[in-house]
Amino acid sequence: xxxxxxxxxxxxxxxxxxxxxxxxxxxxxxxxxxxxxxxxxxxxxxxxxxxxxxxxxxxxxxxxxxxxxxxxxxxxxxxxxxxxxxxxxxxxxxxxxxxxxxxxxxxxxxxxxxxxxxxxxxxxxxxxx
Length: 129
Hints:
Layout: H1 4-10, H2 22-32, H3 51-56, H4 59-78, H5 80-100, H6 106-117, H7 121-124
């Protein structure tokens, strides 16, 4: 839930984030404008895990879009150096998952790790033309 005054001051979601991290980006921008995020333990949200992506996307596409958004968040708020470090940590994490993770996802983990390192960070984030 967002206060109307906060939305008017902070703006809407950044459309460069596709499905992942858009709310974290908005909260970071709100914090930068002096707004607070409040945790309400009594609030409940029902999230049907993977309901959107499972019916349309492969695991690999889901992982790529999720990690692209994580890295885009880091680049936007903390700079390209932070995004480069994040890419290294995330890529190694996927590589490890390709060895010890759920067998059904291992090949997607391996291909996602490869994808993270297959091109420049700017191209990966689609920050250049």
